[in-house]
Design a protein that fits this description.
Layout lengths: L4 H20 L4 E5 L5 E5 L3 E3 L2 E5 L5 E5 L5 H12 L33 H12 L2 E10 L5 E10 L4 E12 L5 E9 L9 E9 L6 E11 L24
Antiparallel strand pairs: 1-2, 3-4, 4-5, 6-7, 7-10, 8-9, 8-11, 9-10
């Protein structure tokens, strides 16, 4: 029996189109949001299996976390935002006429003063370099539900520092950051040379390859009584300032 050559050719073309469409389809990444506001970008959709949330990391490795540690509503919102297509660019209306403006025609405006928060933000960025994590270690949580990072941070600068904040970014074997956590500091104010301990709990997380700490603080102006006015009391003066 002679095969139907046109039909066979149509089938090969259809199969080739399906392969091309499969390769052309963009990879979709979902987002998981933990109860402590950490974010994990997954490769493809995540799914709930009983008391666990199962997913694949961006490097393709399989991972899972307890359902109680995941904020499902926030995860769905973050996933919708990440996968939402970008709006089309706005089309500028056509101009009917063109006016040429030279530098003489422009009235120079007096620049507005900088907001009060800008110097404070700049000072916080600079002061953060004076905080140094001297040591850290990984410990198991007492109930065995995960791990924790415990360490010590030191004020190595000449000024007192306040509003101390530390962020820990966790990395996998591929050198990719997969989670960020705010670190709990025992003392939010440190004098020069002073140290304090910090701790961050990582429920449902038992292993990571590395961690990078980002520090931030605000320098504090500490004044000694009598230095601002330059006045000092001596034993040779009476109550009215006259020598006794």
């Amino acid at each position: 029996m002679t095969p139907n050559r046109p039909a066979a050719r149509s089938q090969r073309i259809f199969a080739l189109v399906l392969v091309l469409l499969a390769f052309a389809a963009p990879a979709v990444s979902d987002v998981l949001v933990t109860q402590d506001d950490g974010r994990i970008t997954t490769q493809g959709p995540w799914r709930v299996e009983g008391a666990l949330v199962v997913f694949r990391l961006e490097d393709g490795s399989l991972g899972s976390m307890r359902l109680s540690a995941i904020d499902l509503d926030a995860s769905r919102e973050a996933t919708e935002e990440a996968t939402r297509p970008a709006p089309p660019p706005a089309v500028a209306p056509a101009r009917e006429s063109v006016t040429t403006v030279t530098d003489r025609d422009v009235r120079r405006a007096i620049p507005a003063p900088a907001e009060a928060t800008e110097p404070e933000a700049a000072a916080a960025t600079t002061a953060g370099d004076r905080l140094r994590v001297t040591e850290w270690r990984q410990e198991d949580l007492p109930d065995g539900s995960g791990t924790a990072i415990v360490g010590t941070v030191e004020n190595t600068g000449p000024d007192a520092l306040g509003r101390i904040r530390i962020q820990a970014d966790l990395y996998n074997d591929e050198g990719t950051s997969f989670a960020s956590h705010e670190v709990l500091v025992h003392h939010a104010t440190l004098m020069p040379g002073q140290k304090t301990e910090f701790r961050v709990a990582l429920p449902d997380l038992f292993a990571f390859t590395g961690v990078r700490f980002t520090t931030e603080a605000l320098p504090l102006a500490v004044s000694v009584p009598g230095e601002e006015t330059g006045e000092s009391a001596t034993d040779d003066e009476g109550p009215d300032g006259a020598p006794e």
